[in-house]
Amino acid sequence: MxxxxxxxxxxxxxxxxxxxxxxxxxxxxxxxxxxxxVDALVKGDAERAQRIVAGDRALDELEQEIDxxxxxxxxxxxxxxxxxxxxxxxxxxxxxxxxxxxxxxNVAKRSTALAQSRQMETLGAIARMARLVQAGIKQVLDAxxxxxxxxxxxxxxxxxxxxxxxxxxxxxxxxYMMEDPRNITPATHLLFIAKNIERMGDHATNIAEVxxxxxxxxxxxxxxxxxxxSSYAVVEPESPRSGGEGR
Amino acid sequence: MxxxxxxxxxxxxxxxxxxxxxxxxxxxxxxxxxxxxVDALVKGDAERAQRIVAGDRALDELEQEIDxxxxxxxxxxxxxxxxxxxxxxxxxxxxxxxxxxxxxxNVAKRSTALAQSRQMETLGAIARMARLVQAGIKQVLDAxxxxxxxxxxxxxxxxxxxxxxxxxxxxxxxxYMMEDPRNITPATHLLFIAKNIERMGDHATNIAEVxxxxxxxxxxxxxxxxxxxSSYAVVEPESPRSGGEGR
Lengths: 247, 247
Description:
Two copies of one chain form a homodimer. By secondary structure, chain A is mainly α. Chain A has one domain: Methane Monooxygenase Hydroxylase, Chain G, domain 1. Chain A is built from six helices and no strands. The first copy, chain A, has helices at 3-43, 46-77, 81-113, 120-145, 149-179, 184-216. The first copy, chain A, is elongated. The termini of chain A are far apart. At the A-B interface, helix 2, helix 3, helix 5 and helix 6 of A face helix 2, helix 3, helix 5 and helix 6 of B. Chains A, B: It holds the Pfam family PhoU. Chains A, B: Keywords: Cytoplasm, Phosphate transport, Transport. Chains A, B: Homodimer.
């Protein structure tokens, strides 16, 4: 190997390390935004919610920084094979993390519409779902940084659990709406909040697919596991004749 | 210019044409899926809805085909400057079109939960919003194919109109829920359908940003125009004392 090509390889490795650092930073920030948004929601902290909305800008800027770094590496280093897959993966992962940030922002926005009427039971279920999603985001970024396809597959498989929690929340929230028309507005926002968090889980699943492909060169087969059947769900109000008996 | 570099350039142009063809095909299919899903919804055609759900697979496959073509071009042609921006843009646009397809699939799924209780007024408003979104998708793909930043900017600016339609639909649907608890399940699905279509508009706006950057090298400044204020919306049920008077 000539001194010059060694130099090029070292420069490429340095740039890849820098890119990984940006992805790790962006992922960490997305996790924090999610956790903070749910915390502000549960505590009814409108001021904090506003800071979270403002904080989304940092994620948008990190995505642009990652995009620029990727384009620069493609132009100057012209990576091939596994290196090329890594660089393209970074671009895709940044786009998913940006979306996760958008959903956290939306959760924070909606929490302000809920300040007066927080149904603690549903909020508890939302917080539990959010913790699972947050763990999935953390794990899939570890999978990216460690080039660990098995870890990515694990996140991908566990999305079903999040979907099932969401379907349960969907049904419970519709029932809550039916109990009193005054519940309808807050419950609708809770429903969208739950959906946002479920979508963040989908984006973690997307990242898992990208990481798996990056490491193995093979796509995860057969479509992702699906536990969200809420799109088909029909929840009936209690019949007036049943006098408030069972659901 | 040597014969050999001419050959390389011609091969690159051919590949770029092929890539543009794939994007045009994928965009056309996404448009068709959206229009068909809304049509199946309005007509309560569950059989057609199922075909639309199955048809999403073709969009997923096209995205994979575009990804593979992009990675191949990056590895073999090593484009720089404007060419590199075009190729990276194709990757991002394909991801947005895939999401648009996912939303169309979800509209089709939900339409089957609505078969028995279709509120024609809301369905009409949804269909109008969908036509705007469809026109935006078509226009932004023309902007990509013609490298027309002005056309892309126009789509970007008009997303506000779609957001405003959605906010109106949000309020009307909540009011409809409050009128009768039996409306709650179908209205919730209508709300998510409307949200799905609004999100497709956001993805057309994303594509507009990608096209604008690809053509001009400059990012659209100042965050996108926002007409969707529904995240902050609170709709109150009629007071029982008002005896069913005005909204």
